[in-house]
Design a protein that fits this description.
Blueprint (H helix, E strand, L loop, with lengths): L2 H28 L7 H4 L1 H7 L14 H4 L6 E4 L2 E6 L4 E10 L5 E9 L12 E4 L3 E3 L4 E9 L7 E10 L5 H4 L8 E8 L5 E3 L3 E6 L4 E10 L5 E2 L3 E2 L6 E4 L6 E4 L6 E4 L3 E2 L4 E9 L7 E7 L13 E8 L7 E7 L5 E10 L15 E7 L5 E2 L2 E13 L14 H4 L10 E14 L4 E10 L5 E6 L5
């Protein structure tokens, strides 16, 4: 890089230097108490010592090849490899490296630490053959990469760059660029099969103020040993309710975690299904929503912390005291047809005891142009639903994230591999018409929403 280019970069580098150091600190903090490799620990020193190749340049949005064009003369296929391995497993794969330059390139494959990774990989886990190669113009070489996971490896995600060119910058620089030329990224997921299956991925219900509800969260132990659990409600899971009376949207909460009690066994016995019972006592003055999670604290190494949680969502059923009113004009004496509809999405799941009737209904009233009350006749009702055909081995996109390994064998609340989504309810009313202004009132029940349509027919001759 010329001195002129260096001068142009100094302003960018100075402005982004602090961001780089803070990013590194965050990466180290995310590693917890684990030791940070020397290459990562020395990032700050390298940045200060060589500002031209500082990784903060990546924050400018420029492609790595703009600053390191010499490495674009090396092709690496594949540029990315993802492996899922258990402790004690091994895996081999081949990487093909090509020379697109007009001169010989010296290849010395080595590992470069990536700053943003859950765990830092031990270099002894990976061996590359051949260990060096002089590649002539137009030539290609196949490198065999062998990955060996020790029996005592920590579970989790690992990421590392494999650099094939001799002078690729250290990982604290190259690691900030996606697909840095002359390298390939290797991501490892070290895992063990979970023993406990969470058969209740979430609880979602429409509840009434002042009422009490119970729910069952089912856990199945597919292993040969008892697994300890210690369920507890997580804090800070409340959804805000905005009070329309306040000009600034005054904030209150539907209720706190103290409205929910948890009963659970200490263990899920081998080969058996256990039930965690939730009892919700909705305060009489509750409004709005509650969202939180039940952290099951399952002592199963195959379940990561964020996977062992059950999402909780409760909405307080709004009960309007006065009906909704609207006016419309009939241009003829034809029959008036009124259609009103509402939809619900998966309420009442995993409720213990008898199922509650949450079917929406509507109390309809009309006033004709003379002001006389007219009761419309209910002509038909209609119920329609959306059904997802699922593979139980995989989580569904509308559910909170559930590991595919946990979801294996997950019971759906419908039959087999069918899972219900939105259900729509429609009622149709008619009344003899008359030209003029009409008033329609609708008092809904068991719903948070509704839609209506009014059709005035042609006058009969």
């Amino acid at each position: 890089m010329s001195m002129l280019d260096i001068k142009k970069l100094k302003l960018i580098i100075c402005g982004l230097l602090i961001l780089s150091v803070l990013s590194i600190a965050c990466a180290e903090a995310g590693a917890g108490s684990k030791a940070v490799p020397a290459g990562v620990g020395a990032i700050e020193e390298k940045i200060l010592g060589n500002p031209v190749v500082v990784s903060s340049i990546a924050s400018s949005g420029m492609d790595a090849g703009y600053y390191y064009p010499e490495f674009e003369k090396i092709s690496v296929d594949p540029a990315y490899q993802y492996l899922e391995l258990k402790p004690g497993d091994s895996k081999n794969f081949t990487v093909t490296v090509g020379n697109k330059d007009n001169k010989t390139i010296v290849l010395n494959p080595r590992l470069l630490i990536i700053p943003y990774t859950e765990n830092f990989i031990n270099e002894s886990w990976i061996s590359i053959s051949p260990s060096a190669k002089d590649l002539k113009p137009g030539e290609k070489e196949e490198f065999e990469v062998e990955v060996n996971i020790p029996e005592n490896a920590d579970l989790g995600n690992y990421a590392v760059l494999i650099a094939f060119a001799e002078n690729v910058p250290e990982g604290d620089v190259a690691g900030y660029y996606p697909n840095f030329p002359g390298t390939m990224q290797l991501n490892l997921q070290v895992w063990v099969p979970p023993t406990v299956q969470i058969l209740t991925p979430y609880v979602n219900d429409l509840v009434e103020a002042g009422e009490t509800y119970t729910y069952e969260v089912k856990l199945r132990n597919t292993g040969s040993k008892d697994i300890a659990i210690s369920p507890e409600l997580t804090e800070g899971g409340n959804v805000i309710y905005y009070d329309s009376i306040s000009p600034y949207g005054g904030v209150t909460y539907a209720f706190g975690n103290d409205a929910i009690s948890v009963e659970a066994p200490e263990k899920v016995k081998a080969g058996q299904t256990a039930i965690v019972k939730l009892t919700l006592k909705v305060p009489a003055d509750s409004k709005g929503s509650y969202t939180g999670s039940l952290d099951l604290n399952i002592d199963d190494p195959g379940i990561r912390e964020y996977e062992g949680k059950v999402s909780l969502n409760f909405r307080i059923l709004p009960v309007p005291e006065e009906p909704y009113e609207t006016t419309f004009k009939a241009g003829t004496n034809g029959t008036i047809s009124i259609e009103v509809s509402a939809y619900q999405y998966g309420y009442g799941l995993y409720t213990a005891g008898e199922n509650r009737d949450l079917t929406p209904s509507f109390e309809m009233n009309l006033k004709d142009p003379s002001g006389k009350e007219v009761i419309p006749a209910l002509m038909s009702t209609k119920q329609s639903g959306s059904i997802n055909i699922i593979n139980n081995a995989y989580p569904q996109p509308y559910l909170p994230y559930v590991s595919a390994r946990i979801a294996g064998g997950m019971e759906t609340y419908n039959q087999g591999s069918y899972q219900g989504g939105i259900t729509t309810f429609v009622e149709t009313y008619t009344v003899p018409g008359a030209a003029g202004d009409w008033t329609l009132s609708i008092l809904p029940k068991n719903t948070e929403n509704f839609e209506y349509s009014i059709t005035v027919g042609a006058a009969e001759e």
